[in-house]
Amino acid sequence: MNERADRGVEAPTVLLVYHRDPTTTAAYLEAALRQRVRVTTVGEGQDVHVDRGVPVSLPDLLERLSDPCDLVLEVEGNNVETLGHHASGVPCAWWAIDSHLHMSYDRHFFKAKFYDHVFVAQKHHVVRYQDWAWTPSSWLPLAADPTIFRPERVEPRFDIGFVVLLRYEDV
Predict the structure, then answer these.
(1) Engineering a disulfide at 13: which of 2, 7, 69, 156 sits with its beta carbon 3.0 to 4.6 angstroms away?
(2) Among candidates 3, 15, 32, 16, which has minimal Cα distance to 143?
């Protein structure tokens, strides 16, 4: 399945930083990445356990790993706080998946400055990261995992449907 391995070339290693949750976008990303590259996860409940909200030096973390990594990819969420990206010697990217909910200069744009590249799930926000964080940015939309969210042929029972997300603060 891994074309590089088929050619005798070792697959690159991605250090994926996110909080373990089976329903998060990052879990689907991890599954897809594992089909093509080697993945080491960092965060609460991950290959390398680090509690959420705890600042961790990325250079120190990379030094602790047995294998070198080719890319650090952090997915926005309730994660560990990684520091020292530019001193890590490894390309670092951040996937801002909820910028439409949390985007602010003191949070998102300040954080984005520390990465070599920022992927943004909301296309119309890419230019804001480029202009306000002075960071190379591009659109990487969210997607559905076809192994989980696959169409099923069922007989319609209703003529209309309604989907809503209620948050505790809305109730």
Answers:
(1) 69
(2) 32
Determine phi and psi for 48, rounding to 5 degrees: -110, 110
Looking at residue 75, its pLDDT comes to: 93
**Number of residues that make up the chain:** 171
14-18, 21-25, 127-131, 154-158: least confident range: 21-25
The pLDDT of residue 1 is: 43
Please tell me the distance from the alpha carbon of residue 53 to that of residue 124, in angstroms, as a whole number: 29
127-161 pLDDT, tens digit each: 988 888 888 999 999 877 777 777 788 888 888 88
Tokens of 164: 């809503």
Report which of 120, 28, 134 is spatially closest to residue 76, judged by C-alpha positions: 120
CB atoms within 10 A of CB 36: 15
3-class secondary structure per residue, the chain: CCHHHHCCCCCCEEEEECCCCCCCHHHHHHHHHHCCCEEEEEECCCCEECCCCCEEEHHHHHHHCCCCCCEEEEECCCCCEEECCCCCCCCEEEEECCHHHHCCHHHHHHHHCCCCEEEECCHHHHHHHHHHCCCCEEECCCCCCCCCCCCCCCCCCCCCCCCCCCCHHHC
